[in-house]
Predict the structure.
Amino acid sequence: MMDFWSYFHVNISTVAPGLYAYVSMLDINYMRWVLWLVYPIIISFLLPLILAFCLVASILFLHFYSYRHGLRQAYAKDFWHGARQSLAVLWDFHGYIWHIVRILMEAFKVSPGTVQSCINLLNEGHILAIAPGGLREALFGDEYYQIMWSKRVGFAKVALKANVPVIPMFTQNIRETFRTPGWSRNILRKLYEKTRWPLLPIYGGFPVKLKTIFGEPIYPDQSESPEEFAKKVECKLQELINKHQRIPGSILQSLLDRVVKRKPKQS
């Protein structure tokens, strides 16, 4: 009696001789070479997930470790009692991790902020760092380093009302550390603008050379509107980027910057 594979072998050679010949000539070593070739691409997509997983796993380990004495006593009393206690600790971890994130944000004074809360911080003598581009610029900014602030002028209102200067700053090669695939930006940006869901694949974690550069303070003129002052700051920041950043950015060249001294751009 003919088994399945013999039947498949006979039929594919009869129905599709061209396909059969191609499959017969396909070398497994070639497939291994292709897989080896795409390994860096696969790893570059997995690395951000691995970093996030390691961070969460570390917090989970510390959380369980803090309950080690209670769990040891629970398992000594009864296995299932210990198992229930372990599950309770695991589910408690879900709330704990968000609590840790909130504590970290409070420790580093990270918050969404309102215009008035920012003014209050400045009046108290604090230095305030604001990212007008927010998540949109972080996700959809590319190697051409165009500023993506849309119509956000909140920071300009803060500077005008608090009467403080704005110091433009950017980090050289920052968009070469992590990238988003170009083919996905246009499609998923439309989804982001409608839903605010940051559904975008990220790859990278490249150890490129980073250097943070500060520009000259930009003092507000009380006769300016927030829109005018925001545009002035945007232009000054773009000039700073164009002066110090290789455009378009290159991951390979940014990696080489760690070992080869970079020539300053000609102004």
Residues 151 and 227 are 8 Å apart (CA to CA).
